[in-house]
Amino acid sequence: MADSSPKKHIVVVGGSYGGVACVNKLLHYLSKDTNVEITLIEKCDARYHCVASYRALVQKDFAKNLWIPYSNLFPKGSPHRIYRGLVKDIYNDHVLATPIHDGAESSTSSSEPQRINFDYLVIATGSMIPSPAKWKVNSSKEGLRKLDETREDIVQSERIVIIGGGACGVELSGEIKYAFPDKSVTLIHEMPHLVDYPRFPESFKEEARRYLTNQGVEVILNERADIEGLSRENSVQKAERAIKLQKSDRVIHSDLQFFSIGIKVDTGFISTLEPPPDKVTPDKKSETTSFDPQTLLDAKSHVIKVRSTLQLDHDAFPNIFAIGDVSNADPVPTCMAAVAAGETAARNIVKLIRKDEKVAAGHQHHHPHLHQHQSSEAMTGAGNNSDDETNGYNCHSWNKLENYRPTQTMMVLAMNPSGGVSHLPVLGTWFGNIAARVAKSSDFFSARFWREMNMPRP
Ligand SMILES: Cc1cc2nc3c(=O)[nH]c(=O)nc-3n(C[C@H](O)[C@H](O)[C@H](O)COP(=O)(O)OP(=O)(O)OC[C@H]3O[C@@H](n4cnc5c(N)ncnc54)[C@H](O)[C@@H]3O)c2cc1C
């Protein structure tokens, strides 16, 4: 595009479902644009396909599908790059990332944080779900080692207890029982229903319970068991335990316990964010000086609050987007939602870049106070769209930004290689093995995500 406009640098933090979908969409629209550079910052050396983690846990030869190299993500010779590092702080025009070197299992303390500037930033740092769903690691090697250790724990045990009957607990119980039918597997859940998420019908929850029970898993509902030392941070424990249920007198003996409750996001990096001085109009100054980055986060879950355009929910940061599990864009976080949000964020960034180019090409004289980036309200038409020159963010609505629509309610629970239970949109109800097998449980979308990374299947 116009060589006269300054080079734009897009930084995407987090190279998984949301981040990679965003990068691929940006490449799709901007591949011929020599004025744009993309940097993907990711702490791991390969992309972790966590959806397949439980199958890989019980079936060793499936583990090769889990970690997808980044080597072919960007075309050879392109100006784009992958930066291996852990983002610790986010500012309005740069991030600080601690580099992670090959072989290092955690960020080395001697590494100085590096400054990486951006014009546009996409935060796609996702969530933590207790292992063996996701691992707190910075390398594929370490992740695979921990997976192997946990598989060995299962092989060595006879009576397994899983605490937490959300989607992860249900899939974990089903996979273990199917792969090791001689072991006893007990799933303990505090609520009256398994997978007790809003917007899902009881028939689906009941079918999940029935399916697991038929498979031989003992499902205990409406019960709570606190196991000493077992927590989301220490979610796999290999120990002989007599577990006392809280409401009844029943005691369950087990030699391996899994904690499978809750999704957690780490958004501590947002605490350094402040509005850029050039975005402050005199009448807004007092408001801006008292800016508290915590207001960008949901008070309870700590996810980043975004507008329907996926820009941060504050007028001062129209160039920063958050997508996937780390954001509140979807009520139920899923990889399909992260992909859809990544693509929407990419299209909106392309629109903003095109608009900047128009400005650089000579439209400024119509808008003396026009800022480089526009507020999402001005861009979506959600707010006052007139040329209100007292507000430094407003402008003509040349191209409206796209509003992200949360994905339709859908869930596929894969409990073994031949099936599981699904709740699908349009069809609006659950189906047994066939839908689950076709949609997920035979391959866990592995073909799709390896293709997306331009990698041949191992
Ligand atoms: C067992 C299991 C089964 C699932 N099944 C399904 C399913 O069938 N369908 C479905 O739609 N969803 C499913 N999900 C949910 C889905 O996996 C998540 O919603 C999805 O992972 C969210 O993607 P994301 O890109 O937002 O974040 P993540 O997948 O969490 O990725 C975040 C990335 O950011 C990197 N990162 C984090 N912090 C930093 C930092 N500070 N600096 C640099 N890099 C960083 C991480 O290393 C990671 O690569 C499943 C999840 C699990 C665990």
UniProtKB/TrEMBL annotation:
Residues covered by region (Disordered): 360-394
Segments of skewed composition (Polar residues): 375-394
Record keyword Heme present: no
Basic residues composition bias: residue spans: 363-372
Pfam families linked: Pyr_redox_2
Record family assignment: Belongs to the FAD-dependent oxidoreductase family.
Record-given protein name: Apoptosis-inducing factor 2
Organism for this UniProt entry: Linnemannia schmuckeri
